[in-house]
Amino acid sequence: MRSFADLTQIAQLVEGRIGDPFALLGPHEVDPERRLMSVRAFLPQFRQAWVVDADQKRTPMRRVHPAGVYEALCPLRQDRLPRRYQIEAADERGQSTMMHDPYSFPTLLTEYDFYLLNEGKHWRSYERLGAQLRTVDGVPGVNFVVWAPNAASVSVRGDFNGWDARRHPMRKHIPSGFWELFIPGLGVGANYKFVITAGGETLEKCDPYGFAAECPPKTASVVADLNFPWRDGQWLANRQHYQALDRPMSFYEVHLGSWRRPTDGRHWFTYREIAQPLVDYVKEMGYTHIELLPVAEHPLSASWGYQVLGFFSATARYGTPQDLMYLIDLCHQNGIGVVLDWVPAHFPRDGHGLARFDGTCLYEHEDPRKGEHRDWGTLIFNYGRHEVRNFLIANALFWLDKYHVDGLRVDAVASMLYLDYSRDEGDWIPNKYGGRENSEAIEFIKEFNEQSHLQYPGVLTIAEESTAWAGVSRPTYLGGLGFSLKWNMGWMNDTRRYMRHDPIHRRFHHDELTFSLIYAFHENFVLPMSHDEVVHGKGALLDQMPGGADLWQRFANLRLLFGYMWAHPGKKLLFMGGDFGQWNEWYFDGSLQWDLLQWDTHQGVKKYVSDLNGLLRSEPALHELDFDWHGFEWIDCHNYDDSTLSFIRKAKDPRDHLVVACNFTPVVRQGHRLGVPEGCFYREISNSDSKFYGGSNAGNFPGRQAEPIGAQDRPYSIAVTMPPLAVVIFKPQRA
């Protein structure tokens, strides 16, 4: 009997460029009168094949093309669906394999899916696209879906088909541009890529929605199951309380690959292995949150995770998705929040990634004046395209949903906001109003924040935004960008620059300390001493402190920096290693200098940061009004000659206040008079010069009684000893 197959389609199939495989493969009714169907399959590795129906009746298949295209004519019975058949195939050795036919299964995407995807509003697109574990008509397998509207053909290539791209061509949904194929029998752990033909070229791409990937330098995506037995229900139920803006927040910024290294020759600990020691350390130090440098899959370790290719994949360097979930779950069970760095500003050019994904600039802009970060060698997302915006916002929601993370710190926000960011005149395209603002990126940022807060109340969104853009941490309905918090880069730069001055010269730079209070309450600020401050030749924080060979001064300056930082309005962020005075500049491919803790000086810094975190938690004056000018009052900000500062921090109840005095010189100042609000005893509750921290033990223990002597326009004052290079904090103690 003649074949009913189309020879042109067979040629396209064999050459790996068929655009509509379902028109050729699978079951097709070919003789309605005789109720016959043709079943066709491409089985290049087998020499014989049979169609086996639901009653186990075997119909031999005829090879209709020498490359391995088989066809059988079978009765189409009313009580049997065509897709319930299986194919039995025998190889050259006569060994048989029974399989379901991928081309006998229906599409699993709905018209509503396509509508939402093309509108850019499918917030759970990660539950439909990528490699989804599915059971169809009782048959388990994986449903693959990828967006490639300009491709001529797309196929799935993997270890399950001998990496033969011809074996599993996908179906294109027109006009949406999404390609789909259900492959029965596949499960967790299968490695795969998409092979895309377009414009005469063949591209091999990893899955943009892949939930896992091979460990670099390997590049395949991996089918993954994201189920996990979470035990953090109590944390999630109370997260809105724990992360309210009037609560204490102290972020410990961590790069998992270099926090601590194994001694058995491996490069890294797994997420699961590092979980308990990391949680124990964070609890010991009193931090409220861990902030992880990006853990999404990235090809280059030296990028620290900031050049992401697998936006939905937890990097395999440190284990499986469940290993990362274990780490986050353990944090939550111990009352620790987890924030991830998220990078929607750009992506690398690697050929297996998003760049020219379907042969065109699909995710990025075509014009390099809008589509390239030349400083970084990366590409910029096309925020004006619905599907791209959907991809990014769904990715943010994915981490909040599947991994239970408590917040996202968005990297390089300024590079998204400005069309002329790091560009010369004439090398950028103005917006439709002639301005430099990237209106498409702004709308994307607002929508990201709106959806994050709407769908996951209580989560934090944090902007690393280095300019004076107004309203970054204000609600979108008030014209803001909608972030919860913003890194205070101005404070960080001014403070670090001031602290690097030799104390003898600090009197000439006093405004570098006081300027931050002019704008401190314009945004909800985080005070960051992040990884960026200890790389690229800057040295570790301790190494940046003045004092030369006088180690006492250098350690005292570091404690002074931390005391001033924790007393200043704003939430706190400190990069790992700084909290025990690491000497070496941070290096991503090594471990922190934990051996330094054998020395009392480093132990002193560690103990001081731990006590500062304890004070931050216990004293409402240090956290309740971080973003409100009612929570701060200068006592004396003008004493540049002595390089001292003094101020009051207040809680919501103004009677609950603290008096803070900072001495930025190594000179002990006796009888320094500070105006205070009440005529009571002021107990010294913190002194960075304490001998317990490695200081000289000058101070005011147990405190000072206020006297009816006016100072700084206040009716009472206390005469205090200002220890050298130190911060002292007093709390009113009423009878």
What does this structure look like?
This protein is α+β, with helices and mostly antiparallel strands. It is built from 17 helices and 36 strands. The protein has an eight-stranded parallel β-barrel. β9 and β10 (139-147) form a beta hairpin. The longest helix has 19 residues, at 600-618. The termini are far apart. The mean pLDDT is 95.
Distinctive features:
elongated, alpha+beta, 5 domains, 36 strands, 6-stranded antiparallel sheet, Immunoglobulin-like, TIM Barrel, 17 helices, 735 residues
Strand portion: 25-35%
Number of DSSP-assigned strands: 36
- Shape type: elongated
- Write out the CATH superfamily name of the largest domain: Glycosidases
Low-confidence stretches: none
User: How many domain units?
Assistant: 5
Known CATH architecture of the largest domain: Alpha-Beta Barrel
User: Whole-number radius of gyration?
Assistant: 31 Å
Helix content: 10-25%
* Number of helical regions: 17
Sheet with most strands: strand arrangement? 17-18-21-24-25-26-27-28
The overall average pLDDT, rounded, is: 95
CA-CA gap between termini: 106 Å
- Determine and state the CATH class of the largest domain: Alpha Beta
Largest sheet features: 8 strands, parallel, barrel
User: Which fold name corresponds to the CATH topology of the largest domain?
Assistant: TIM Barrel
